[in-house]
Write a structure and sequence with these properties.
The protein is mainly alpha-helical. Helix content is 53%, strand content 0%. It contains three helices and no strands. It is elongated. The N and C termini lie far apart (55 Å).
């Protein structure tokens, strides 16, 4: 089985591939790394808050509980975390 012939040597092809790779924008810029770190920090703090909060809530339970209040609070928190980007919080806006 013969390999397909090429007009340029493999070294030239490698060099061309490296040049194309350099011209492509990198997905992990300092800005995207910082956004990712902030998201991870928010998620971890939410998990820690959920684990450390027990039955000792500061507010007494009301008999007039709004069933949508908790979902609304979560959606607002998601919007706040993501700078108002509703696409990042799609699970809350179906």
């Amino acid at each position: 089985m013969a390999l397909p012939s090429s007009d340029s040597a493999p070294e030239t092809q490698d060099k061309d591939a490296k040049e194309k790779d350099k011209s492509r924008p990198k997905p992990w810029t300092e800005d995207t790394k910082e956004k990712f770190r902030r998201q991870v920090d928010l998620i971890l703090s939410a998990i820690c808050a959920a684990l450390t909060s027990g039955t000792n809530d500061s507010k007494p339970k009301s008999e007039f509980l709004d069933p949508c209040q908790e979902a609304a609070q979560r959606s607002y928190k998601c919007l706040y975390r993501n700078g108002g980007d509703r696409t990042m919080c799609g699970q809350y806006f179906k």
